[in-house]
């Protein structure tokens, strides 16, 4: 296709006219247009143009002086765009499609565009690329292990709501020297059928995007917005002290303050002969400043995976897979070489759950670029190797842990995953944790039957291995109390684990425990300290640690509280350490946000995760609420 002509514009424009100035809609899709074919002098004659379709061409950039001041809808899907800062020339833009441009950078949309107007987001089907060889589909069965048998819906009335007086967000145990954490946002972004009345979807896992390239996250951070169309996220209000709640509480429209720039997705429904009902909703904003830590968190629960900007509370991206129930997410960053020889850095999110599939999501582009049929039963958890960016561990209800090498995606953005190791377990694995001091050598797993360790060295001949060592704790050795449902390294040596004894979190030394191994298959851990926690008999409250060496341990409970422990002073005390469990540094009380005009007074916090600098804390609940706290 050569340069555009006035005759072509009149042929493809609507309404039909012999004058360019009267055309309101123009379809230039599928013409193999290059960026130099867009003649600003010619296109600027379209004085009344409101809708322009440039999809399925070969555009690398948009001219900066098109003069289309009345443009409201712009479709640029399936091009080669790498920079779209020229979008700021369209002050009336409401709807934007950038799907299928997988190498767009987050610097593409200027702050002026974010402030200029709201661009509607539309749902569309995003196909998954089918694997080359697929197993027969297994019958769907919901595993019971992650469902608490005696759950009650939020301790609310049958109408899922309760009427109480306003109360402040209360912090217990703080002596004034500890950092103050204040509730910032409460989001209801995993609702089934986008219903604002959904207070039942259970949220299970979250992970902060790793910051890289001078600390910059792949997903934008600036701006806060009000959608012009229907919002897919509900925002809950909470009342600090006697302050007046802002907004209308939980509503379909949310509580946004400025119009966002949104990417609508209208990719073809069929790819390689298969149809998918998966949906990706995307939002791309301008980045924060270089050197800032990641404030982008991925959350999962129900049929959705959301990527949220913690500062603004904006759901940047939302991926939906009908019939799935997501249990785990994990990030990695890959370096990809394009056909033109340019190196691009991808932030890839792996998500897995009920169906035993691992979905590899290129979040920035809004594209599911791979599906691994990893297990025949549900995947309880997954994690990437800290030393090999393409190595992924998956743990399933089939009592197997598999190490995969995803490889680097090809020019068609396809992964060719290969299986490296299979680790057999005697019970369902719940948490995975590469040993911090030797992640290429040993893997820890918290299981229904206890805490186990495997040799994961790839230079060994056996590709299928059994547990080498089972760790025994001095308390709770009976079968009912052996479950380890929380596991994380506090530093290179100290492990925090939960579930082996009622009402406590155990801190133990990996090095001191391992040095006494010999040829034993069962090994008693060397306990350094015990932390006081909730006396609940309910399970599957996952703990986490702050990854920046802050010495912070976090865990939720059945009342909606967040237990915060600063264990640095405990670990530096001379032996012997106190035998009694150590009290938490702080307990962040559930702030009782408003839902459906009433307060949610109680919920279960399934997992709590902080970003590396402990600036933001994200808590996921049993009641479809994502709670975000900020360190003051």
UniProtKB/TrEMBL annotation:
<dbReference type="GO" id="GO:0006260">
    <property type="term" value="P:DNA replication"/>
</dbReference>
<feature type="repeat" description="WD">
    <location>
        <begin position="372"/>
        <end position="406"/>
    </location>
</feature>
<feature type="compositionally biased region" description="Basic and acidic residues">
    <location>
        <begin position="125"/>
        <end position="151"/>
    </location>
</feature>
<feature type="domain" description="Leucine-rich repeat and WD repeat-containing protein 1 LRR">
    <location>
        <begin position="7"/>
        <end position="107"/>
    </location>
</feature>
<dbReference type="GO" id="GO:0071169">
    <property type="term" value="P:establishment of protein localization to chromatin"/>
</dbReference>
<dbReference type="InterPro" id="IPR003591">
    <property type="entry name" value="Leu-rich_rpt_typical-subtyp"/>
</dbReference>
<keyword id="KW-0963">Cytoplasm</keyword>
<dbReference type="InterPro" id="IPR052489">
    <property type="entry name" value="LRWD1"/>
</dbReference>
<dbReference type="InterPro" id="IPR001680">
    <property type="entry name" value="WD40_rpt"/>
</dbReference>
<dbReference type="InterPro" id="IPR056160">
    <property type="entry name" value="WD_LRWD1"/>
</dbReference>
<keyword id="KW-0206">Cytoskeleton</keyword>
<dbReference type="GO" id="GO:0005813">
    <property type="term" value="C:centrosome"/>
</dbReference>
<dbReference type="GO" id="GO:0006325">
    <property type="term" value="P:chromatin organization"/>
</dbReference>
<feature type="region of interest" description="Disordered">
    <location>
        <begin position="125"/>
        <end position="179"/>
    </location>
</feature>
<protein>
    <recommendedName>
        <fullName>Leucine-rich repeat and WD repeat-containing protein 1</fullName>
    </recommendedName>
</protein>
<feature type="domain" description="Leucine-rich repeat and WD repeat-containing protein 1 WD">
    <location>
        <begin position="180"/>
        <end position="225"/>
    </location>
</feature>
<keyword id="KW-0137">Centromere</keyword>
<keyword id="KW-0539">Nucleus</keyword>
<dbReference type="InterPro" id="IPR001611">
    <property type="entry name" value="Leu-rich_rpt"/>
</dbReference>
<dbReference type="GO" id="GO:0003682">
    <property type="term" value="F:chromatin binding"/>
</dbReference>
<keyword id="KW-0995">Kinetochore</keyword>
<feature type="compositionally biased region" description="Polar residues">
    <location>
        <begin position="154"/>
        <end position="179"/>
    </location>
</feature>
<feature type="domain" description="Leucine-rich repeat and WD repeat-containing protein 1 WD">
    <location>
        <begin position="285"/>
        <end position="630"/>
    </location>
</feature>
<keyword id="KW-0158">Chromosome</keyword>
<dbReference type="Pfam" id="PF23215">
    <property type="entry name" value="WD_LRWD1"/>
</dbReference>
<dbReference type="GO" id="GO:0000776">
    <property type="term" value="C:kinetochore"/>
</dbReference>
<keyword id="KW-0433">Leucine-rich repeat</keyword>
<keyword id="KW-0853">WD repeat</keyword>
<keyword id="KW-0235">DNA replication</keyword>
<dbReference type="GO" id="GO:0000781">
    <property type="term" value="C:chromosome, telomeric region"/>
</dbReference>
<dbReference type="InterPro" id="IPR056363">
    <property type="entry name" value="LRR_LRWD1_dom"/>
</dbReference>
<dbReference type="InterPro" id="IPR015943">
    <property type="entry name" value="WD40/YVTN_repeat-like_dom_sf"/>
</dbReference>
<dbReference type="Pfam" id="PF23211">
    <property type="entry name" value="LRR_LRWD1"/>
</dbReference>
<keyword id="KW-0156">Chromatin regulator</keyword>
<dbReference type="InterPro" id="IPR032675">
    <property type="entry name" value="LRR_dom_sf"/>
</dbReference>
<comment type="similarity">
    <text>Belongs to the LRWD1 family.</text>
</comment>
<dbReference type="InterPro" id="IPR036322">
    <property type="entry name" value="WD40_repeat_dom_sf"/>
</dbReference>
<keyword id="KW-0677">Repeat</keyword>
<keyword id="KW-0779">Telomere</keyword>
<dbReference type="GO" id="GO:0005664">
    <property type="term" value="C:nuclear origin of replication recognition complex"/>
</dbReference>
<dbReference type="InterPro" id="IPR019775">
    <property type="entry name" value="WD40_repeat_CS"/>
</dbReference>
């Amino acid at each position: 296709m050569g340069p555009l002509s006035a005759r072509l514009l009149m042929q493809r424009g609507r309404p039909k006219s012999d004058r360019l100035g009267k055309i309101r809609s123009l379809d230039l899709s599928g013409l193999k247009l290059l960026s130099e074919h867009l003649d600003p002098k010619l296109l600027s004659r379209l004085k009344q143009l409101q809708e322009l379709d440039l999809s399925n061409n070969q555009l690398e950039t948009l001219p900066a002086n098109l003069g289309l001041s009345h443009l409201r809808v712009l479709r640029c899907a399936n091009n080669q765009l790498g920079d779209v800062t020229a979008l700021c020339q369209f002050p009336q833009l409401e709807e934007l499609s950038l799907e299928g441009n997988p190498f767009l950078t987050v610097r593409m949309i200027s702050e002026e565009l974010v402030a200029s107007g709201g661009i509607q987001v539309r749902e569309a089907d995003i196909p998954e690329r089918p694997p080359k060889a697929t197993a027969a589909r297994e019958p769907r069965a919901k595993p019971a292990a992650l469902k608490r048998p005696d759950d009650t819906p939020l301790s609310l009335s049958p109408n899922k709501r309760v009427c109480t007086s306003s109360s402040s967000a209360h912090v217990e145990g703080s002596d004034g020297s500890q950092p103050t954490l204040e509730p910032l946002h409460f989001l209801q972004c995993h609702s089934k059928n986008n219903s604002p009345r959904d207070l039942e979807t259970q949220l299970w896992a979250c992970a902060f995007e790793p910051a890289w390239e001078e600390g910059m996250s792949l997903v934008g951070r600036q701006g806060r917005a009000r959608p012009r169309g229907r919002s897919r996220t509900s925002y809950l209000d909470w009342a600090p002290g006697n302050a007046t709640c802002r907004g209308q509480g939980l509503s379909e429209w949310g509580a946004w303050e400025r119009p966002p720039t949104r990417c609508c997705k209208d990719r073809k429904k069929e790819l390689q002969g298969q149809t998918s009902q998966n949906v990706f909703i995307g939002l791309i904003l301008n980045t924060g400043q270089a050197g800032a830590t990641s404030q982008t968190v991925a959350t999962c629960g129900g049929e959705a995976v959301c990527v949220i900007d913690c500062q603004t509370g904006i759901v940047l991206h939302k991926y939906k897979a009908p019939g799935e129930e997501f249990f785990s997410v994990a990030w990695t960053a890959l370096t990809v070489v394009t056909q033109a020889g340019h190196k691009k850095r991808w932030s890839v999110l792996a998500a897995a759950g009920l169906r035993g599939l691992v979905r590899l999501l290129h979040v920035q582009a809004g594209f599911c670029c791979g599906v691994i049929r990893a297990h025949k039963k549900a995947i309880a958890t997954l994690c990437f190797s800290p030393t090999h960016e393409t190595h992924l561990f998956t743990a399933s209800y089939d009592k197997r842990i598999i190490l995969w090498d995803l490889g680097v995606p090809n020019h068609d953005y396809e992964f060719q995953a290969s299986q490296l190791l299979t680790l057999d377990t005697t019970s369902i694995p719940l948490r995975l944790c590469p040993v911090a001091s030797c992640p290429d050598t040993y893997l820890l797993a918290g299981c229904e039957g206890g805490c186990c360790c495997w040799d994961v060295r790839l230079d060994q001949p056996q590709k299928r291995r059994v547990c080498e060592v089972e760790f025994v704790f001095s308390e709770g050795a009976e079968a009912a109390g052996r479950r380890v449902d929380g596991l994380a390294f506090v530093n290179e040596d100290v492990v925090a684990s939960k579930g082996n004894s009622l009402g406590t979190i155990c801190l133990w030394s990996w090095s001191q425990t391992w040095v006494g191994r010999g040829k034993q298959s069962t090994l008693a851990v060397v306990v350094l300290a015990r932390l006081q926690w909730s006396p609940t008999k309910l399970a599957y409250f996952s703990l986490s640690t702050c990854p920046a060496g802050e010495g912070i341990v976090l865990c939720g409970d059945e009342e909606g509280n967040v237990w915060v422990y600063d264990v640095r002073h405990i670990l530096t005390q001379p032996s012997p350490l106190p035998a009694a469990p150590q009290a938490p540094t702080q307990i962040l009380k559930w702030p009782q946000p408003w839902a459906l005009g009433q307060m949610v007074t109680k919920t279960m916090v399934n997992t709590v995760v902080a970003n590396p600098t402990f600036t933001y804390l994200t808590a996921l609940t049993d009641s479809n609420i994502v709670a975000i706290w900020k360190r003051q």
